[in-house]
Design goal:
NAD-dependent epimerase/dehydratase family protein; NAD(P)-bd_dom_sf; 3-stranded mixed beta sheet; 7-stranded parallel beta sheet; alpha/beta; 299 residues; Epimerase_deHydtase; Rossmann fold
Length: 299
């Protein structure tokens, strides 16, 4: 049992899974989100605005590690993410807690070939610049920091473009669609593997001052959909590719959907996360895709 005090900012699927895993190992866990939530065994929930530096700093007293799993509304990243990141970082600096941030691949920009953690930040989008700046600010701080980067999420209650747009139709046997190349290789990150990587990074002496990739499964949207249909005992999926122009037309009245357009390159081209360093140094490997799918289906 580690029996340390941990603070998690963000009570979404990854934040909650991280909290549950830490509590199961005997840690004292405080999880912070804007809205009240029921307190689970071993987890104390506090409703706090994550931009409130004073409140976060007070909660961070005696905490060994802060996990930043916050996720503002997709169309509010430039306005809401920087003050959240700044407040969490300041709380880590003042309290002396380590900071582990959950991030993604947006900061790399468009990459030819598999993405490794050694790639420089070269964002080409608004949301990519938000993520890159968060990491650069963390590295320039006095806190001990690390970052775990994931691709599109799969798993129970996971939220991603695929789970929101395509998965329901695949399960129900209805025609469905996805943005981009249906046959391009793509990394899919299991939310429980994200939690495992966050925790492992927080405990490894050599994890600090660099990023880590969450181990993921690599397969195309078409291959993933076929396997999901097989496990769900659903008919073979009927998939249609949406072009960027078609997506723009559908997103004309939806501010969140419009935000996907600048990230379309992630789906038009192969998007593969190389996690060899994580597997070797942190000992975390990707859960087999069939197990991920069963969890996503609630089986």
């Amino acid at each position: 049992m580690h029996q340390a005090k941990k603070l998690i900012v963000g009570a979404g699927p990854t934040g909650m899974l991280t909290a549950q895993a830490l509590a199961a190992e005997g840690d004292e866990v405080i999880i912070v989100s804007r809205n009240p939530r029921p307190t689970l065994p071993g987890i104390h929930h506090v409703a706090v605005d994550a931009t409130d530096v004073a409140a976060l700093t007070k909660l961070a007293g005696g905490v060994s590690t802060i996990f930043n799993c916050a996720m503002p509304r997709y169309d509010r990243w430039p306005q809401e993410f920087p003050p959240i990141a700044a407040a969490v970082l300041r709380a880590a600096e003042v309290s002396g807690a380590d900071l582990v941030t959950l991030s993604n691949v947006y900061g790399y920009g468009q990459v030819a070939g598999p993405m490794t953690e050694s790639l420089p930040m070269a964002p080409q989008t608004v949301k990519g610049r938000v993520r890159a700046t968060m990491w650069e600010d963390a590295l320039a701080s006095r806190a001990r920091v690390t970052e775990v980067r994931a691709s599109d999420y799969l798993g129970r209650d996971a939220l991603s473009l695929y789970t929101l747009m395509t998965l329901p139709g695949v399960i129900s046997g209805q025609p469905t669609h996805f943005l981009g190349d249906l046959d391009a290789l793509h990394s899919w990150t299991y939310t429980r593997d994200v939690a495992r990587t966050l925790i492992s990074a927080s405990r490894a002496d050599g994890a600090w001052g660099r990023a880590w990739h969450a181990p993921s499964n690599d397969l195309s949207v078409r291959a993933l959909s076929i396997r999901i249909a097989e496990i769900a005992a659903a008919p073979p999926p009927i998939l249609t590719r949406l072009s960027t122009d078609e997506w723009q037309a559908l997103a004309a009245s939806d501010p969140i959907a419009r935000e996907v357009i600048e990230m379309a390159y992630l789906y038009d081209l192969p998007c593969v996360l190389d996690s060899a360093a994580t597997e070797q140094a942190l000992g975390v490997k990707a859960t087999p895709i069939d197990d991920v799918i069963r969890d996503a289906l609630g089986r």
